[in-house]
Design goal:
1208 residues, Nuclear Transport Factor 2, Chain: A, 13% helix, ten-stranded antiparallel beta sheet, mainly beta
Length: 1208
Amino acid sequence: MPTTKFSTPEKYEYRNGFGSLHESEAVKDALPIGANSPQKAPHGLYAEKLSGTAFTAPRHENLQTWAYRILPSASHLNFEPLGKPFNSQLKESLSYVPNQLRWDPFDIDKGVDWVRGLRLVAGAGDPTMKSGLGIYVYTAGKDMAPKTAMYSSDGEMLIVTQTGVLDIQTELGNLLVRPNEIAVIPRGMKYRVTLPEGPVRGYILELYRGQFTLPELGPIGSNCLANPRDFQVPVASFDEDTGTEWSIINKFNGQLFVAKQSHTPFDVEDTFRPPWYHRNTMSEFMGLIQGDYDAKAGGGFRAGGASLHNVMSAHGPDATTFDQASNAELKPQKVGEGSMAFMFESSLMLGLTEWGLETCSKVQPEYNKESCEGSAGIALLDIDEEALTRVRAEIEDIIRERSGGGNGIKISICRVDVSDEDQVKKAVSDAADFFGRLDYVVHAAGIAAYHDRGAAFVETEVWYKLINVNLSGTFFVMRAAAQIMLKQEPILSSIDNRPPQRGAIVNVASVCGILGGKSIAAYVAAKHGVAGLTRSASVDYAESETNHARDLVLKLHPGAVIDFRTIYLLEPPKAEVLPFLALEHAGKVTRSTPRPARLAQARYDVIGGSKAAEYHESIFDLTASKVVSHDIIPTDYHAGLTVFEFKKLVECVKASPLFQEKLRTIKLPPGFELVVEPWPYGAPDLGDGQTRLFQCLCFGRNTASGSKDSNFYAYPIPLIPVMDFRKNEIIRVDEPATGGGSDPLTGRTHKSGIVDHCGPSEYIPELLPSGTRQDVKPLTLQQPQGPSFTMRDSSLIEWQKWRMRVTFNPREGVVIHDIRYDGRDVLYRLSISDMTVPYADPRTPYHRKQAFDFGDGGLGHAVNNLTLGCDCLGVIKYLDGVLTTDDGSAEVAKNIICIHEQDNGINWKHTDWRTGRATVTRRRELVVQFIITLANYEYIFAFKFDQAAGIVVEARATGIVSVVNIDEGKTAPWGNVVSPGALAQNHQHIFCVRIDPAVDGHKNTLVQEDSLPVPMNERTNPHGNYYEVRQTPIATSSGIDLAPFSNRVFKVQNRAKTNPISGKPVGYKITTPPTQLLLADPHSTQAQRALFAKHHLWVTKFKDDELYAGGRHTLQSRREVGGVADAAARGDDVLDDDIVLWSVFGLTHNPRVEDWPVMPVEMLEVHITPVDFFTENPAIDVPSNTDLGSKRVTDDCCGNKASEKPHL
């Protein structure tokens, strides 16, 4: 018992004694009676033995612990090297000096945890020989990461605390270790260290051989200073966590290894089936002479092979053997009959030769899975019993062929009619009971029927039979399986890359369900229903990560009112992603491959008490359910606006006495109603301070048409209410001038009948005065064999040698990742980074009129649901996105990305005039497109990939130009009258595309190339026809402008790789449109808010999460902060480095009457084209097939008359 008066009170219970035999249980009756390893341990626990000595050690020396736990320690993935994060590598050489040494107090590193705070000071011997010791100093200021535990295979650790308190959670219970106390952690014991009172410092002696013992009593007889009763051992304590991912760190021969497992290591319910779950201080090398070994009956341990379980490596039987023995009839039986096995057991840590580990090619890569996953199980369900038996035999043959005798996979068969709801429910439930859970369900049951005379003659009986089997059967199986899966704890998958999941369901539809087919109407209808059912069900359960992040936010702020803004994925650091991508590209990703963290970023307001609402940004690790970072954003910055704020704004305007008073000063014609359109406030004036403000533009709608879609923009009203959002109040109503160019910039000149001189301007077809054209014949794009692209893993697209992943986030929209062509890296990431729309009307308050359509509020709730056949043509794959409601719940946005192929004219052509043969190929493109509507404007963004390895980023602007009221008969130089009383203001649209290149790797250089005239001279240009191509590598992060008269282009080159034909570095060319940049005065707030719009191209050094050209917080900004201008100002060296390009281009839009009422699209493109990247035209192998659908028009087509002859 401790005698020291500690300032930190004890909080755990202990048993007293050193080297004594204890038993303890955290759950009543968890300890088995009369047997350490009963056939079935109580509560379904697993018996596991931790050996501190050899099996054969004499009784008085034999040390062992029996633990009864929820899952065995062997249930983990393979260990992978963790690298060298701390300086205790015993492979480093030790210096031996005869000098006297003394150290000043060691610095405490407050930025590291226990693992990274260990420092080897001195040592001797070798842990592989179980000889010697290591002396460490530890300092730390942080808890070990959540869901992380550690153990040492090298030795037993004696911990001496000097500063601070250690709270150590071990498998056998908890320890609180304070200064003046010591603690011993046995070899192989998993533990986790937290620091309840902050930074710590202390010492560790690690003993490589044996265990610590008390000294003999010696000359002072029985009055020894250290008595056994002065020592305490913990009582059993456990966590019940079998659904989250843990990292287990193993110190093995002075190096760190890490393994993942889907359960806590601290699940021992008591301490003191077939047993065999074991961690041994000895190394066990086993071989099989003949027969089977009873602990490995699955077939993997075969005669002539061998196994090795090194020091403290957890091991045990395969799950099938465990289950069979646990449930076998207890009766006398001969052990090992017909079998002969041997074991070489050593106290030494065994190393492996290259031949033993690699060259012999006999190491079973999946061996660890037998313990990690247990045995697989397959339940086969079908109506045909004979077919079930046959398929089971085929699967068993495949298993035997691949594993050399089977690996314990259980296969059950059950006859079931999938159209019978009760049969399905029982069969699925029985399968779940038999295996303990359902992880994957693949439903492929289906029948077909042909109708020679078409759909009109399908028999009712046949129709119902196909619908019942193909569609209803799919629904019954999916529903029964989903209800079971939703109740299961999530676990790590063994066959894919996802975070822990409760299960997965695959429903097999048919391409006929999309394209249709002749004489199979009932089949097509059923399979179309299967596709729709599956899509709908996937939406129902697609939002779990968003909702999980929401719950973590609420947990972080208990009792507070939270208004959520956005929750979406935070991309992991590139340094974590690249190693994973390298393995993925090589096809070497396994279940044990470390994955980058799955992170969510949440942006929200915290409201509570007397304080004003605070804007917070937090990052969460979704797998570990922990907070990674949490920031309260200063009031200098404003959170992006949300839909619910705009709804409040509209309600506030309509309820405002001040606005209603102003509205009464004008007269709307009979039948007109007010329309209020929210707008961001723009750049605040100095007097606005940091108040969160919104404004509205007002219009009148003529209800006489009877359509809610009547164009209200034709009737602008010069009232702009301004709302203080914190007060939820309209604080003023701005009344802009409505005069012309010769009138003052302020003051009222309009009549009370403010829209009397305006006229209707309709665009929806049913309201057009003359209707729509009647001479447009259908133009249909058909792909009878389906599209040429494939998509899997919900994001991976492969098409015509291209490979990429597509994601969506509410700030940038579509993002394309890991873009590769024919197995070579091209781009790491491609996105629309930002855009700004500044207006050129100098009158107050229009000087503030400037939208950042991406940054002000994100474009999430502005994305369009893309209607089949209109926004995209052909055979289309649609993707959904996930948005956030104001209560933090996930909301699925349907069909917001369309992926399809399109024809874009001729790709390449040549005609040999000698033979007359023309060879021509069409330019086919893969298009990934999304569309946003921001009040009056639409923007269409498309990423287009062609067969010649080129990429085009296309921006199209359409929609309705923003108009303000102008007095009758007047004009103004800051806009154009496009409809009576409606002035469309001059403005610009400035876009920025962010390009993260990876041209054959991530060490790239930007090269500026100019084509310049060379004066005629005798030496280099005697005839005057030569011009110079001058290449200038850009060495420092900066902004650069285009020079169209010197044909300036920019190339991204990998100077470490040379084209074997040209001898030049491989590269890609970036061709940005040489458009006007921002026209506002550089000193104006409008220009200062959009510094990114100063140059056509920026090059910066890569930095994680530096994604937004205009900065993270653009709403009501006065200056761009944290945008590309700040990134370039760092002056980073960008030669042969990981660089990012920011391509800026724009549309100076001085409206024309033809832009009204809806403008035809204006289109701008950035081209990303290979330059000396290939050894020939990469599209040379595109087939030059004839389009069988094309037809030649006849003479009587298109209004021609056969008798008419052409005239020159």
